[in-house]
Design a protein that fits this description.
With 381 residues, chain A is of the alpha+beta class. Chain A is built from eleven helices and twelve strands. Chain B folds into three domains: 153 residues, Alpha-Beta Plaits (2-Layer Sandwich); 146 residues, Sulfite Reductase Hemoprotein, domain 1; 74 residues, 2-Layer Sandwich (Alpha-Beta Plaits), CATH 3.30.70.20. Chain B is built from 15 helices and 15 strands. The chains are: A alpha+beta (381), B alpha+beta (437), C alpha+beta (80). At the A-B interface, strand 1, strand 4, helix 2, strand 5 and helix 4 of A face helix 1, helix 2, helix 3, strand 1 and strand 4 of B.
Chain lengths: 381, 437, 80
C-alpha cells in the first residue's frame, strides 16, 4: 500500500492549514419539509411504535420512521442508510441522541414503502438492520460507551452487553406497553464517559481489584509524580522497592483507598487493573432527566456486582428483564421506574424485584451518603 | 475465510437487535474484496484484527487496549484519542488504532452526500468503523494510524469544510436536541444557539483552556431529551413565562376519547378510558389545574412548567409565547465527589442573536473557574467547594428564592464585615465602660 | 513581563523540573507567569504549542502540557 498524500506537508504543518472552522451549519442538511416548517410545528402523533407524524401550522406534515442502530457502525452500513435515504427521503437522514436513525418523508403515501423496505433488511447473521421502534412508553435504544472494542480502562464490554440486553428487551422496543419511557444506558467504567447516572436502568462496568504494579518497568515507562497525581483518592505514593537485588523507584498503592477508577493506568501503563474475576457489572435504577411530574433523579445502585458473562451476559440481562417486568406490572400509568420505586418504597422494590440487599448498597462515600439513610420511623415490613 | 476464529462473538450475531459483529464482518469482507480498487492507507485486514482482538477480550474478560496521550493534529489539544493494542504482533492491523472526533452538525441532520464523503474518506484512510455517534455527540471515527491523522484532518478541513470536536481540558463538542426543527415543544432554536456558541468558542474547543472538561448542552424544553440537566456544566433548557395556550374544543376531544392521550405513546396496553382528572390534573405537581364544568383551567402563575399536561394533550395544550431559556450549571457524572444535577442560576433569559447576554454569563463563569478551579475540578465541584454565593458574585447575579429548593438548614452565615452595621473594628475600652473585667 | 519574557520563563521552569516531571496542568503555568491573568497565560501556552516549543499530552479527559519531545510517554507509547 503506497502512501497517498492529502496535500498536507509534514515539514510545514502550518502551510495552508485551515483550523477553527467548526462543524457544518445545521441548516445545510435540513430536508425541505423541515426547512419550510421549522418553528411552526403544531403537534405530533405516534402512529404506531417507531412511526411519528408532526403536523405544521402550514398544513405540512413530516412522517418519521425511527430505527434502532448499533452505534458501532461500519461505512458499509452507513452507505446502506444513505441508499435508503436516497431512495425514499430525498437524500436526507438524521440520528437521535440515543443512537437511533430517523428516516423522514413528507407524505403518508411514501411511508409504507419506506417501512417495508426497512423491515426487510437483515444482516447475514439474521439480526434486523433497521428495527422500527423506540418511541413512546417503551424501551428505546441504549446509549453506551466503547468497552473492549476501543477503551483502555473498561470493566466490561459495551456493544456486547447492549446487543444482549436489547435482544432481551426487543419486544418492548417495538411496543408501547410500559407505564412510561424506559431509558437504559451503559458505561463501561465508573468514569462514565457516557453519563449513565440518571437512567431508568444503568448498566455500569466496575473493577474490584487495585492496579497490579509492574515494578521492573514502572520507572522506565512512567513519570512517578504523574502517576501519584493521577489518583483521585491520594492512594498512590512514591516508593523504593527491592527487585532482583536492585533498589528501584516505583510506587505503593494503599489498596483500601483505591476506588478502581483506572486513572493511574491512563497516566502509567505499568499499573494495569483489568481482571477477569475482579471485573463485572453494577446495576443502577430509577434515574431520570426529564422534569416531567417529578424533578430529575439520580440512579441508585441495586445490584452491587454481576460477573462478566461474555458473550451473552445472561445474569445481567435476566435481572434487567425482571426489574422491567415487575415495574411494568406494578406501576401506574405515567410513572417512571424511579417514581414507582419511591411510591412503593425501596424496601418493597427489593421484595418485588426479588433482589438481595447487602451492605454494599448503603452509601458510604463522602457527604451525600447521609441523605440516603432513613431518617424516619416510617418504613414497610 | 476469516483471519481469526471468533466463536464467542459469533454468538452475538443471532437475535433481533442489529448485530455489530455482523456489521464488522461485512466491513471486513468488503475490504478483503476491495471491489472499488481502493489504495487502503491502513492495513486492509484491520476489521479482521478488530474482531480478533475483541474475541480475545471476550475470552480473557479484559481489554487489550492501551492509552496514548501524545498523538493529535498539530496545534489542537483535542479531537484525537490515542490507542494502541497490547498484542500488536497478533493483531498488526490494529497496532495503532487512534480515534478521531468529528464535530457533528447541530440536530444531527445529514445529507447522504455528506455522509458518503465521510465514508469514502474513512474507508480510504481509516478502519471504516465509526460510532454514529459518541456519547458527547461527535461522529467518532474509530481506528487509524498516526501518519493518517494529519492527512484526515487536512481532507476534512480542505475538502469537507469540517472540523474536529473537543476532548481533554477543552470545551467539549456542544450538543442539542432536535428543537424547533421538528418539535412543537421547542422554546428556542437549539440548533442556532448550539452552532453560534460552537463557532464563537472554537479556540476553547480545540485548545486546552480550563482545569478540566466543560460541556454545553441545549434542551429545547424541560423534557430534556439530550439530558443537559444531568451531564453538562452549563445546561440551557427552554422555558416560557406566560400562559400555556389552551384549545378548549380539543381538550373536550381528548376527554371524549377522540384523540389518544400522550400522542399515542401508551397504545400498546389497555389503560382504560382517558380520565383527565386522574391522568392530568391530579398528577400536576403544583395542583394548578382543574375543571370548571367542561372547561380546563390552569392557574399559570403557579405552574412550574413540568410539561406533563402538554405531553399528555399535545393537540390541546401548547407552550407559552413569551419564551426563553433557563441556565443550570454544574452537572456532572459521579467521578469524583458524587454526581451532581445542574443547579438553577439564571431562571429566564431571552434567546436573541447575537446572544450577548448568554455569552456574558458563560465568560464570567469561565473567568471564575479558570482562576479558582483546582486541577481536574469540574465547575460543579468548585461551586460546592466555594459555595453558590461565590458563583452569584462571579456572575453578578442577585440571589432570589428560585435559586434554592429550600433555605439553608443551619444559621452559620459567614457575614462579611461590610454587611454588618458599624464594621468589625471595635474599641475594647469603650466596651469595658459598661462591662467590667 | 512581555510575551517573550513570559515564554522564556516558562521554558526555564520546565527545564528545571524536567528531571522529575515533564507534563503539567495548565494551572501550573499560571504560577510561572504570575503577573498575567489565567486567560492570557493560556493564550501564551497555546501559542507556544503552535510554535512547536510545547506539546500537549491528553488523558482523554484532561490535557497536560510539557516541552516538546520530553518525558517517558513517547517511548512508552511507541511514538518516538
Amino acid at each position: 500500500m503506497a502512501f497517498i498524500s492529502s496535500g498536507y506537508n509534514p515539514d510545514k504543518p502550518m502551510e495552508n492549514r485551515i483550523t477553527d472552522i467548526g462543524p457544518r451549519k445545521y441548516d445545510e442538511f435540513y430536508p425541505e419539509v423541515i426547512r419550510n416548517n421549522k418553528g411552526k410545528w403544531k403537534y405530533h402523533e405516534i402512529l404506531k411504535p417507531g412511526v411519528l407524524v408532526h403536523v405544521s401550522e402550514t398544513g405540512d406534515k413530516v412522517f418519521t420512521v425511527r430505527c434502532g442502530g448499533a452505534r458501532l457502525m461500519s461505512v458499509t452500513h452507513i452507505r446502506e442508510i444513505c441508499d435508503i435515504a436516497d431512495k425514499h427521503c430525498g437524500g436526507h437522514v438524521r440520528f437521535t441522541t440515543r443512537n437511533n436513525i430517523e428516516f423522514m418523508v413528507d407524505s403518508q403515501d411514501k411511508l409504507d414503502p419506506l417501512v417495508k423496505d426497512l423491515e426487510g433488511r437483515k444482516f447475514d447473521g439474521g439480526s434486523f438492520k433497521f428495527p422500527i421502534g423506540g418511541t413512546g412508553a417503551g424501551v428505546t435504544n441504549i446509549i453506551h460507551t466503547q468497552g473492549w472494542i476501543h477503551c483502555h480502562t473498561p470493566a466490561t464490554d459495551a456493544s456486547g452487553p447492549v446487543k444482549a440486553t436489547m435482544d432481551t428487551l426487543f419486544e418492548e422496543f417495538q411496543d408501547h406497553r410500559m407505564p412510561a419511557h424506559v431509558r437504559v444506558s451503559l458505561a463501561c467504567c465508573l468514569n462514565m464517559c457516557g453519563a449513565v447516572h440518571c437512567s431508568d436502568i444503568a448498566i455500569l462496568g466496575y473493577h474490584r481489584k487495585p492496579p497490579i504494579l509492574d515494578h521492573e518497568y514502572l520507572d522506565k515507562m512512567c513519570e512517578i509524580p504523574l502517576a501519584v497525581a493521577a489518583c483521585p483518592t491520594a492512594a498512590i505514593k512514591p516508593a523504593k522497592v527491592e527487585f532482583n537485588g536492585q533498589t528501584l523507584n516505583s510506587v505503593a498503592v494503599k489498596n483500601e483507598r483505591c476506588m478502581f477508577c483506572g486513572n493511574c493506568y491512563t497516566m502509567c501503563p505499568s499499573m494495569p487493573l483489568a481482571d477477569t474475576e475482579g471485573d463485572g457489572i453494577v446495576l443502577m435504577v430509577g434515574g431520570k432527566v426529564s422534569n416531567r411530574i417529578s424533578t430529575p433523579k439520580f440512579s441508585k445502585v441495586v445490584v452491587a456486582f454481576i460477573p462478566n458473562e461474555a458473550p451473552r451476559w445472561e445474569q445481567t440481562t435476566s435481572t434487567i428483564k425482571r426489574i422491567i417486568d415487575t415495574y411494568s406490572n406494578d406501576a401506574k400509568k405515567y410513572e417512571r421506574i424511579g417514581e414507582w420505586a419511591e411510591r412503593i418504597g425501596w424496601e418493597r422494590f427489593f421484595d418485588k424485584c426479588e433482589l438481595d440487599f447487602s451492605h454494599h448498597l448503603i452509601d458510604d462515600f463522602r457527604d451525600p451518603a447521609y441523605y440516603t439513610w432513613r431518617q424516619t420511623s416510617q418504613f414497610k415490613f | 475465510m476469516a483471519k481469526h476464529e471468533t466463536p464467542l462473538l459469533d454468538q452475538l450475531e443471532s437475535g433481533p437487535w442489529p448485530s455489530f459483529v455482523s456489521d464488522l464482518k461485512q466491513e471486513a469482507e468488503s475490504r478483503a474484496k476491495n471491489e472499488k480498487g481502493i489504495e487502503y492507507q491502513i492495513p486492509q485486514d484491520v476489521c479482521e484484527d478488530i474482531l480478533g482482538v475483541l474475541e480475545l477480550s471476550y475470552k480473557h474478560g479484559r481489554t487489550h487496549w492501551k492509552h496514548g496521550g501524545i498523538v493529535g493534529v498539530f496545534g489542537y489539544g483535542g479531537g484525537v484519542i490515542g490507542r494502541y493494542c497490547d498484542q500488536p504482533k497478533m493483531f498488526p492491523g490494529v497496532a495503532h488504532f487512534h480515534t478521531m472526533r468529528v464535530n457533528q452538525p447541530a440536530g444531527k441532520f445529514y445529507t447522504t452526500d455528506y455522509l458518503k464523503k465521510i465514508c469514502d474518506l474513512w474507508e480510504f484512510r481509516g478502519s471504516g468503523v465509526t460510532n454514529m455517534h459518541g456519547s458527547t455527540g461527535d461522529i467518532i471515527l474509530l481506528g487509524t494510524t498516526t501518519p493518517q491523522l494529519e492527512e484526515i484532518f487536512h481532507e476534512l478541513t480542505h475538502n469537507m469544510d469540517q472540523d474536529l470536536g473537543g476532548s481533554g481540558s477543552n470545551l467539549r463538542t456542544p450538543a442539542d436536541c432536535i428543537g424547533a426543527a421538528r418539535c412543537e415543544y421547542a422554546c428556542y432554536d437549539t440548533q442556532a444557539l448550539c452552532y453560534d456558541l460552537t463557532q464563537e468558542y472554537q479556540d476553547e474547543l480545540h485548545r486546552p483552556a480550563f482545569p478540566y472538561k466543560f460541556k454545553f448542552k441545549f434542551d429545547g424544553c424541560p423534557n430534556c431529551c439530550v439530558a443537559s440537566i444531568a451531564r453538562s456544566d452549563m445546561s440551557f433548557i427552554g422555558t416560557w413565562r406566560d400562559n400555556i395556550r389552551i384549545d378548549q374544543e380539543t381538550v373536550k376531544a381528548y376527554i371524549g376519547g377522540e384523540i389518544a392521550p400522550n400522542a399515542g405513546a401508551h397504545s400498546g396496553r389497555d389503560w382504560g378510558a382517558f380520565d383527565i382528572q386522574k391522568e392530568v390534573n391530579d398528577l400536576c405537581p403544583t395542583g394548578c389545574m382543574y375543571m370548571d364544568g367542561d372547561k380546563l383551567v390552569i392557574d399559570d402563575k403557579e405552574c412550574t412548567r413540568c410539561m406533563h399536561c402538554i405531553n399528555v394533550m399535545p393537540q390541546a395544550l401548547r407552550i407559552g409565547e413569551d419564551r426563553g431559556l433557563s441556565i443550570l450549571v454544574g452537572a456532572k457524572a459521579p467521578i469524583l465527589d458524587g454526581a451532581q444535577m445542574g443547579s438553577l442560576l439564571v431562571p429566564f433569559i431571552k434567546v436573541e442573536e447575537p446572544y450577548d447576554e448568554i455569552k456574558e454569563v458563560i465568560e464570567a463563569i469561565w473567568d471564575w473557574w479558570m482562576e479558582e478551579g483546582k486541577n481536574r475540578e469540574r465547575l460543579g465541584e468548585l461551586i460546592k467547594r466555594q459555595g453558590f454565593q461565590k458563583l452569584l458574585e462571579a456572575t453578578n447575579i442577585k440571589a432570589i428564592p428560585q435559586h434554592v429548593q429550600e433555605p439553608r438548614h443551619n444559621p452559620y452565615i459567614f457575614w462579611k464585615e461590610d454587611e454588618v452595621e458599624g464594621g468589625w473594628d471595635r474599641d475594647i475600652n469603650k466596651f469595658r465602660k459598661d462591662h467590667l473585667r | 513581563m512581555d510575551r517573550d519574557e513570559a515564554k522564556k520563563a516558562i521554558v526555564e521552569t520546565l527545564e528545571k523540573k524536567a528531571k522529575t516531571k515533564s507534563k503539567f496542568y495548565l494551572k501550573d503555568f499560571y504560577k510561572m507567569v504570575p503577573d498575567e491573568k489565567p486567560r492570557a497565560v493560556k493564550n501564551i501556552v497555546n501559542e507556544m504549542v503552535g510554535e512547536g516549543t510545547l506539546e500537549y499530552w491528553s488523558s482523554g479527559s484532561t490535557t497536560m502540557i510539557g516541552l516538546a519531545g520530553t518525558g517517558k510517554q513517547a517511548a512508552a507509547e511507541d511514538e518516538d
